[in-house]
Amino acid sequence: MPAKIVNLDLHAIATLRYIRASMDGAGSVAIPGSAGIAMGGIGLVAGALSLTPNLARYWLPIWLVAAPLAAIVGALLLARSGSITTFVATGTPGRKLALGLLPSLFAGAVITAVLWSVDRTNAIPGTWLLLYGCGLISASVSTTAIVARMGACFTGLGLMALSGPALLHIPLLALGFGGLHILFGILIARGAHGHET
Amino acid sequence: MATKPKSRTPATATARERRKLETVAATTRDDAESKFDRLVYERVRLGIMSALAVREEMSFNELKGLFDISDGNLGGHARKLEDAGYITCTKSFEDRRPRTAYRITEPGRAALNRYLDHVEAVIRATRG
Questions:
Q1: Contact between B55 and A8 using a beta-carbon 8 Å cutoff
Q2: Residue A99 lies in a domain
Q3: Do A23 and B46 touch (CB under 8 A)?
Q4: What residues of chain B lie within 8 A of the CB of A22, using their CB?
Q5: Domain residue limits at A144
Q6: Nearest by CB to A19, which of B50, B65, B101?
Q7: Can you tell me the ipTM of this complex?
Q8: Cα nearest neighbour of A83 on chain B
Q9: Which of A178, A184, A193, B32 has the maximal Cβ count within 10 Å?
Q10: How much is the pTM?
């Protein structure tokens, strides 16, 4: 009977969806909230130092030290998670995570060098926030949806920094790399939007 | 060896419908190995096989978290797949804690592919 054929069809499609969901679930990286909180802590310290009157003119070196430091701390905390170790070593999703995030970071490094060489350092904070946000959105394909939301927030801050006055640049950097990392790190750790292993 | 599947095509079916249904039947194994294929049809076991098809290795805890099932439930399903030779299980220690990891085998991957072929044939037959 036609009705039974339609049911079979729907069942087959539901089965395919289930297979797809299982594969997607297996292929996603569980980002530990602790990584975001630790990186945010470094961002807040960098922001505080950059806003100190005596150190304000050294904001770029301060952030250039803070960025790799936060990246290393974040990577170490990721590696501590049981899933990520086998994940990066053996699985395609690890490569997807790297391929999603690293191009934006590389572009950020190149543009930073270019802006510094032409003495347009005012554009650097907005560029960092914008490109990091885009990188997070790309990387969210292999992580959880909350990472995309964090990326969207970074992108918004980047646009504000690029269009706003220079006075706001360092506070926006601190708000992004400090505040957003901590906020979303707490949300991830609490399992409000993602999962942690 | 695969035997010719028994025809279940209704006598009233048109030639086009009969061809489609025969395509579906051709992807359904009625031979001695089919009891192993049926292992894959169960929802959790199908999920385990699908997850292991994209990850070279997954731990017991990762699978448990992915499907939100109990230790006993996962252990039972994994044991059946292991007994069928569709997955392998390795036990080790990580930071002094026992760790159980699963990998899909070539026969397991072939069984999953056969199942996917069957589902695809069903969809083609009913939609195409």
A1: no
A2: yes
A3: no
A4: 46-48, 50-51, 66-67
A5: 2-189
A6: B50
A7: 0.72
A8: B62
A9: A184
A10: 0.60
Cα separation, B84 vs B107, in Å, equals 9
Label the pairing between strands B97-104 and B87-94: antiparallel
- A 10 A CB-CB count for B42 gives 13
Q: Which two tokens stand for residue B100?
A: 């159980």
Domain positions in chain B: 34-127
Instruction: Domain count for chain A, please give it.
Output: 1
| Cβ atoms within 10 Å, residue A43 | 24
Phi, psi of B91 (to 5 degrees): -115, 130
Contacts of B55 in chain A (CB under 8 A): 26-27, 87, 90-91, 93
Compute the mean pLDDT over every residue in chain B, rounded to the nearest whole number: 78
* Bridge partner list, A194: none
Chain A environment of B94 (Cβ under 8 Å): 82
Structural contact between residues B29 and B37, judged by C-beta atoms closer than 8 angstroms: yes
Work out the minimum CA distance from A4 to partner chain B, whole angstroms: 10
Residue A195: what pLDDT?
35
Q: Mean pLDDT highest for which of A91-105, A137-151, B1-15?
A: A137-151
Residue B8: the pLDDT is 53
CATH topology of domain B34-127: Arc Repressor Mutant, subunit A (1.10.10)
- Per residue in A51-103, pLDDT (tens digit) is 999 898 999 999 999 999 998 898 888 766 555 545 544 455 567 777 888 99
Cβ separation of B54 and A15 shorter than 8 Å? Answer: no
Chain B residues touching A95 at Cβ < 8 A: none
How far apart CA B48 and CA B42 sit, in angstroms, is 10
